[in-house]
Description:
The protein is α+β, with helices and mostly antiparallel strands. Helix content is 29%, strand content 18%.
Amino acid sequence: MVRNRFWVLAVLVVGWVACVALGQVCPTCTSDEDLPFIEPGKTCTIIAVGKNATVDGSVITGQSCDCGSCDFTIHLIPAADHPEGATRKIYLLDQYSTYPDANWTRPPTYEKIFSGVEIPEVPHTYAYIHGVFGNLNDHQLQINESTIGGRRELENTPGLFTIAELTMIAMERCTTAREAIKLMGELAEKYGYNGRIDEAECLAVADPNEVWIFEIYGVGPLWTPESGEPGAIWAARRVPDDEVAVVPNHSIIGVINFEDKENFMYSSNVVDFAVKKGWYDPTSGKPFNFSDIYDPRYWKDGTPITPRNSYGYYARIWRALNLLAPSKNFSPDLYLHDYPFSVKPDKKLTLQDIFAFYRDHYEGTFLDMTKGVAAGPFENPNRYPRLRFTLDGKTYYFARPIESYHCDYVSLCVSRSWLPDPIGGVFWLGLGESDTTCFMPIYIGVNELPKSITIGNHWEFDRESARWAFDYVTYHTLPFYSLTMKYVKEAQDYWETLLIQETQLVDQIALQLYKADPAKAKAYLTDYSKSAVDRVVKAWWELGDNLLVYFNHGYIYSTPGKRGSVSWPEWWLRLIIEKDQMQPVP
């Protein structure tokens, strides 16, 4: 998105100077290459909520797809039956690319990404909704993703399966989280996990009864299928039913309990590979800490990375756990891998709580991104040098919040065990930045998706594309953020409250229809999901128009017949006087 407002540029220039003066600099590094781990270039955040941690007993996982250039279109792949002897082509799906036709999985129309390998097809494949990754299938299996980086030695593995393709094939073939983890792990070990396209990855994998965290790494550039060695390293840990886990681009699995087969799964080489590399000594008596072994998080001088000593760049785990369980008052000075795998929230979560989670900018903390010079006179939490920049040979960090200005969409998947699958599975979609979007419900039982969410790209403005309606609103919030967001929040509160209330009624009506005729229930869910998306998209186009009018040319036209003025705060005026060396008029 182009954001070329003059005041934004001014804020950034002054912000850079201020950061230098305040010493917000990485204490030991000047570039990513100086770090022992791969710093994920894309910054997604997972939340994974157990069924006893939600108010209604649903299982929920979410992901902010914080790429900035990824394909933001959403698609429905129908269920299908396949003849005996059929094969399934494997595609080198690049999660960071936009494809001409995002329905590439069945049938593919973009043969340039065909790997050349086909594997045996199964007799029946399930219907599913996908964005960049497979998200929710018609058995209420759900997956959401966060890149985690990992050791540099493990990247560039020439494997067959990318993380996106693993999620797609799990959606097609699996009905439970355990099945999906086992299948993805087996395929990656046999055919190799493609570290040339992907870095290490984490998936929240869930079904109506449980939720898991699955992490996978490559095994380095020397692996070949002919070696007979596993082509991936992976582990999975079950989130307790009454707890919540958060993955902010680094490993969280922690210590593996090899005796606990009910709550842990792992690859056949998980220990042996680490021993061979000298990363773990089985005679040391130390527990096998999967996170610290495969994703060590230390500055190049050996100092453990913490939320505080990274100036908030690695602070999401601290913030997230404190949002969920403020009574625990987690310190910002803990090593990243010393935070717990999951926490029991102080109160059970609602959908609105999770919407709010994805809109957080550290408000009220020492990292509050609505404060300070870089936020400008109107408390804009966005940081446009992509959270860090280099000046005079030194690297400076901004805090990295849960909400991200380069978010393509947020996918929230809900699974409910007490309802039939077509009704129980709901995909709540928030397109664009989470602080200015509106979450919209789409039932997994739909026959087709609203067309507006299936089209569009970053490089062409398109009024038929739903994503552009939300970008339109975002763009008009930027010059006077603290003033414009009042109207956005009012719209969010109205529509999200309404849609949640509506879905409670839709559940009941659809259930009655389903008992009589499942086909009629699916038709009803299709009509409702289309209506929900269409109404919200229309409302957001209107909201963008209103913001353009209300704050046109730096005036306020929100009250008919009256024109107000936008005023810079006193602290900003004093800064201008100081930096521009202005003199008072005699």
